Amino acid sequence: MVNLLEANNLRVSYNTAEGAHTVLDGVSFFIGQGESVGLVGESGSGKTTLGLSILKLLPSNAAYTAGSILYKGKDLLTMDEKSLSRIRGKDISIVFQDPLASLDPLFTVGYQISEAVKAHRPGMEKAELEKAVVSIMGDVGLPEPVRIRELYPHELSGGMRQRVMIAIALVNNPFLLIADEPTTALDVTIQAQIIDLLKHAKEQYNLTILLITHDLGVAFELVDRLIIMYGGVIVEQGSKQEIFSRPFHPYTKALLMAIPELMDIALNAPSRLSAIPGSVRANYDNYVGCRFYDRCSYRTKECLDKEPELQEYSPRHPARCIHPLL
């Protein structure tokens, strides 16, 4: 399988009034062409920063301090803004978790979809442009697209707004779709519809998908492979089947144990629903040892000697733990 995207030793920091804080600390991963990959972790794990890093959409106080992000072999981090603008929304598109905040309230949804087309195909004639807008709206399941394209974002439900965002992301036939918590603000029924829509879009548009989520239940429905993040580093990677049936890192197991409908499937044994104690630290600057130590029920004093490295405890299934759950 050819790697469509590859990050190598990526380090990102945010400059604050208290100084610079490292948010991503030596992150390396790949996404093969045609894969669906889930990037999973709690708030504060660094997953959204990683997703935004791919298209250099981080806020102005962010700095890339090391590493590379290769798209089809070319480093996105060294590209100038003009070159990147040709890729954003064309080769690589992103769907954010809050469509109401992403859509402009002053323009109709049809106009906003058409602007995404014109950004990369400025010479398209009006009739062809209107046809493209109506077609993509139908593809993402928006009923009566000719009527709905004249509506404003506030006139649509949350699920319909998210479908508009997906239409904007897909209208230029991208190779890679980054979906950042695309179902978080939706009720359970609409969540299932959006997941089904993404599954259908993957097949219809031959997409590669990076799903960013805190919910392993959502990831279970959509992805082939999982990347688990904690405290700005990757703590486990592997196929969905391996990680759900045999998690190696205590954090991954704790995430699974917090989801009732997955506990029996994933761990193959009935158990009580449990929450992970404590929370992710604000930063891990100058921290020594395992970043999950404070919250881990398997910890020993050796865990604080140094930060564990990712080790393959089975083929293509590495974990960052000196006490893996083998």
Structure write-up:
The protein is an alpha/beta fold. It has one domain (3-91, 174-319): P-loop containing nucleotide triphosphate hydrolases (Rossmann fold). 33% of the residues lie in helices and 25% in strands. It contains 12 helices and 12 strands. The chain has helices at 47-54, 81-87, 99-102, 109-120, 126-139, 145-148, 158-170, 188-205, 216-222, 240-245, 250-257, 260-267, and strands at residues 3-16, 19-32, 36-40, 62-71, 74-75, 92-95, 176-180, 208-213, 225-230, 233-239, 311-314, 317-319. The strands form 3 sheets. Strands 6-7-8-3-9-10 form a 6-stranded mixed β-sheet, with helices on both faces. Helix 4 packs parallel to helix 7 (158-170). The longest helix has 18 residues, at 188-205. The two termini are 28 Å apart. The mean pLDDT is 92.
Just name the CATH architecture. Answer: 3-Layer(aba) Sandwich
Q: What's the CATH class label?
A: Alpha Beta
The radius of gyration computed from the alpha-carbon positions, rounded to a whole number of angstroms, is 21 Å
Give the % helix: 25-40%
User: Main β-sheet: number of strands, strand sense, barrel status?
Assistant: 6 strands, mixed
Order of helices and strands: EEEHEEHEHHHHHEHEHEEHHHEE
Class per helix and strand makeup: alpha/beta
Task: Give the total of beta strands.
Answer: 12
- Give the terminus-to-terminus CA distance: 28 Å
Strand residues, percent = 15-25%
Question: What is the CATH superfamily label?
Answer: P-loop containing nucleotide triphosphate hydrolases
**Which term fits the overall shape?**
globular
What strand order characterises the main sheet? 6-7-8-3-9-10
Counted up, domains total: 1
Low-confidence stretches: none
Give average pLDDT, whole number.
Answer: 92
Note the total helix count: 12
CATH topology: Rossmann fold
